[in-house]
């Protein structure tokens, strides 16, 4: 059996609150071993903690998706591919927003933005749409 790591040591190592690990336990994401009423994690659970932390921080996954991923281990590639597709859509939206805002800054007109010729050229008004 692997050496067991106390909950405090695991929390400190991964930069998590102990309450976070307890919550993940209650959600069924991780499992602690208990000795004399104290929680400990084996290496497999430590790897799982690291994976969940990466999914949360880097992958942008919520706990509901993580729960689904862990419950359907054989489908994790499908879930990851779906998350990638969502991230690519979000990246495209952010790129378009970035480009639009950069372009707005090129407007030399000093008044309100709605007076900017560049902006006005790109807005369809109801009267223009009808014609």
**Percent range of helical residues:** 55-70%
Unreliable segments (pLDDT under 50, ≥5 consecutive)? none
Order of helices and strands: EHHEEHHHHH
Structural class: mainly alpha
Spatial order of the strands forming the largest sheet:
1-3-2
What is the tally of helical segments? Answer: 7
Radius of gyration: 25 Å
The largest sheet is: 3 strands, antiparallel
Total E-strand runs = 3
Structural write-up:
- With 131 residues, the chain is mostly helical.
- The protein has helices spanning 7-14, 18-26, 43-57, 63-71, 76-104, 117-121, 126-130, and strands spanning 5-6, 33-35, 38-41.
- The longest helix has 29 residues, at 76-104.
- The model has no long low-confidence stretch (mean pLDDT 88).
Index terms:
mainly alpha, single chain, elongated, 131 residues, 3 strands
Write the layout of secondary structure elements.
Elements: E1 5-6, H1 7-14, H2 18-26, E2 33-35, E3 38-41, H3 43-57, H4 63-71, H5 76-104, H6 117-121, H7 126-130
Antiparallel strand pairs: 1-3, 2-3
Question: What is the gist of this entry?
Answer:
The protein is mainly alpha-helical and 131 residues long. It has helices at 7-14, 18-26, 43-57, 63-71, 76-104, 117-121, 126-130, and strands at residues 5-6, 33-35, 38-41.
């Amino acid at each position: 059996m692997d050496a067991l790591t106390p909950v405090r040591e695991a929390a400190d190592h991964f930069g998590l609150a102990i309450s976070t690990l307890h919550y993940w336990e209650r959600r069924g994401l991780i499992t602690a071993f208990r000795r004399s009423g104290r929680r400990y994690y084996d290496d497999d659970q430590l790897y799982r903690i690291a994976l969940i932390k990466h999914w949360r921080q880097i992958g942008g996954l919520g706990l509901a998706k993580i729960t689904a991923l862990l419950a359907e281990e054989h489908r994790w590639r499908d879930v990851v591919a779906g998350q990638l597709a969502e991230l690519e859509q979000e990246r495209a939206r952010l790129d378009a927003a970035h480009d639009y805002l950069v372009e707005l800054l090129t407007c030399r007109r000093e008044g309100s933005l709605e007076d900017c010729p560049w902006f006005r050229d790109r807005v369809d008004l109801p009267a223009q749409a009808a014609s």
